[in-house]
From TrEMBL:
This is Deoxyguanosinetriphosphate triphosphohydrolase-like protein. Pfam families: HD, HD_assoc. Residues 1-30 are annotated as: Disordered. It comes from Pseudaquabacterium terrae. Keywords: Hydrolase. Belongs to the dGTPase family. Type 2 subfamily. The keyword Oxidoreductase does not apply. NCBIfam families: dGTP_triPase, PRK01286.1-1.
Length: 384
């Protein structure tokens, strides 16, 4: 692998919290990726909401398909910048492991339930999953990932949470939120790949659902620009093929823009190694004109899709499910599996248990415990 000098080189990794002998055929970041793919939390992502709850359609994105798309886009950008593709892939595949059922609605509800007890945030929960909650190995809890993978998973962190994590792990994965430095270039890159992926697939899923119409898309400068370019080359193109071509062109432009803009910035600032790059502010970025267009697209999606009455009705029901599950398990901890019910911190145990649920397992548990179906039309009864 021909890596740039400012890339994250596996030989320079800060290592794992629990020392392990090296793997025969894989470097540390490849090993991290493989552990993530084989984890229970990763498999659960297939039935966790992105925008549309699992029972609303088989072809909408889930947290799993979203994570795979982020990994694909991230690897393409990393290849263009000679950064570490394996580290990018590990971060991308793990970044949503801590997400609750029902997407951000579930997270918001669980945070409200835990507000007086440390709150809940899915980035912190993703780190908690890989550090503690996965129990697959005889010598340690969690997946024992490398420092660089763990740091990249912690995309956001409040000052209060960062100071708490820093006290438990001095100069650890939360240090950058305290001292104002940056994560690895690979982590910066994955953050943008995440944004590229969800903007594109939310447009696609919004149109597929019927909640977004073609004439609405024409009001968004980024989408209209690529529509005009597609129609110029393919004047008879229409329907979903035209939409796919718009999205394909939009994805390609964003990937190439990040590569070109970041390459210029890296050449200008010339970090001598991966650690020097962390002190220079964000180096992986969009150009200013494209960033403005992406911001306008995000505003459009917030206004026309995420706050659409049909979406809001579903998310309101999802919040009720999470709140009522939380109350039920707090009152009756024996309803949870024994390893959760007997923990010393009962409220955090309830939060961990609910956060690990898929959409349909949470809905099924809610029906079992309350006798009510929160979602019109019901859900598939496949297990957690």
């Amino acid at each position: 692998m021909d890596l740039a000098r400012h890339a994250s080189h596996p030989a320079d990794s800060r290592g794992r919290r629990h020392a392990e002998p090296p793997a025969r055929l894989r470097d540390d970041y490849q090993r991290d990726r493989d552990r993530i793919v084989h984890s229970t939390a990763f498999r659960r992502l297939v039935y966790k909401t992105q925008v549309f709850v699992n029972h609303e359609g088989d072809l909408f994105r889930t947290r799993l398909t979203h994570s795979i798309e982020v990994a694909q886009l991230g690897r393409s950008i990393a290849r263009g910048l000679r950064l570490n593709e394996d580290l990018v892939e590990a971060i991308a595949l793990a970044h949503d492991l801590g997400h609750t059922p029902f997407g951000h609605a579930g997270q918001d509800a669980l945070h409200d339930c835990m507000r007086e007890h440390g709150g809940f945030e899915h980035n912190l929960q993703s780190l908690r999953v890989v550090d503690l909650l996965e129990q697959r190995y005889p010598a340690f809890d969690g997946l024992n990932l490398s420092f660089e993978s763990r740091e990249g998973i912690l995309k956001h962190c409040s000052r209060r949470d960062a100071e708490r994590l820093e006290a438990a792990e001095p100069h650890g994965v939360a240090r950058r939120f305290v001292d104002g430095t940056q994560p690895s270039l690979e982590a910066q890159l994955t953050n943008l790949a995440d944004e590229i992926a969800y903007n594109a697939h939310d447009v696609d899923d919004g149109v597929r659902s019927g909640l977004l119409q073609a004439d609405q898309l024409e009001a968004v400068p980024l989408l209209q620009r690529h529509r005009a370019a597609a129609v110029q080359v393919h004047p008879m193109l229409g329907g979903r093929r035209l939409l796919f071509e718009i999205i394909r062109r939009m994805l390609s432009e964003q990937v190439h823009d990040v590569i070109d803009t970041s390459a210029d910035r890296l050449e200008r600032d010339a970090p001598i190694d991966a650690w020097a790059a962390r002190t220079m502010g964000p180096l992986i970025r969009f150009s200013a004109p494209l960033r403005d267009e992406i911001t306008e697209l995000k505003r459009f999606l917030m206004r026309e899709l995420y706050r659409h009455p049909q979406v809001m009705a579903t998310t309101d029901a999802a919040r009720s499910v999470v709140r009522e599950l939380f109350a039920a398990y707090v009152d009756r901890p024996a309803e949870m599996p024994e390893d959760f019910a007997r923990r010393d911190d009962p409220l955090r145990a309830v939060a961990d248990y609910i956060a690990g649920m898929t959409d349909r397992f949470a809905a099924r548990e809610h029906r079992r415990l309350t006798g009510r179906d929160a979602f019109a039309g019901g859900m598939n009864d496949a297990g957690r």
